Amino acid sequence: MKLTELDLPALKELVAEWLLSNEGAEAQLGLEAEEIFARAKQLKPLIAAGVVSPGEVELDEDLKDVLYALVTLVSTDPRDADSAREAQAICRFIRGISWPDDELGEKQDLVMRCAAAAQEAASAVGTAPDTRGTPAQSLSEKEARKAFLESAGLVHAILVKYHGLSELEAQQLEKDLLAWFIRFCQRPNGPGTDKRGLLLAACSHLARGYRSLESTRPLPSAAGRLGELLGWTRAENER
């Protein structure tokens, strides 16, 4: 029988039995709420930009907490086109995660809540004034460079800590990426509103292409790379 099929008295009895059988055992404390939401905010743009894929994470209780925080964030975001895209990306991300022994149906619950947030955001966009006929503004070279610099630290971390490039390789790819980004931003239809998402997606695509040419060089585990990229490994070692 699944836990979700138990009534309240039976569930209370089960919890009481578990507490009794584990009396004196050391409790495993999870992350603090502030750190959980900090991690969720770090992970959110990376998922939306396609930098991190479901197959590159290992599910544990800490990651479950971060996923719940992610869904909370997208459920409270402003209802606009960018929020709808982010919610859809996170919904696909959660759906793609391997989630064994899910007796409580947590994965399905998160997927449904995230899908609802995406639908609400999309519906709100549908009722907003139609601006589709207004072309996106192109950016000057100065504006494009400024937009690039705002995410330069994260771009470098993605190249070095996540994709395993050397400092010299990363610097060269950053120059190539900046040159492409400036040209793209100066196109008549411009980069759109999500300049950061566009840049991170292009960065990851460029790094994967480069790595495919250097396929003989091994990478550390995906979970380790993600923790290093976001600074989670360091924080966990300090706890």
Give a short synopsis of this structure.
This protein is mainly α and 239 residues long. The protein has helices spanning 8-21, 33-48, 61-76, 81-96, 106-127, 141-150, 152-162, 167-185, 195-213, 222-230, 232-238.
Characterise this structure.
By secondary structure, this protein is mainly alpha-helical. The protein has two domains: 98 residues; 98 residues, no CATH class. Helix content is 67%, strand content 0%. It is globular. The two termini are 37 Å apart. The relative contact order is 0.11.
SSE topology:
Blueprint: H1 8-21, H2 33-48, H3 61-76, H4 81-96, H5 106-127, H6 141-150, H7 152-162, H8 167-185, H9 195-213, H10 222-230, H11 232-238
Strand-residue proportion: under 5%
Contiguous helical run count? 11
Integer-rounded radius of gyration: 21 Å
The level of helicity is: 55-70%
Structural class: mainly alpha
Main sheet overview: none
Low-confidence parts, pLDDT < 50 over ≥5 residues? Answer: 127-135, 233-239
Oligomeric assembly: single chain
E-strand count:
0
List keywords for this structure.
11 helices, mainly alpha
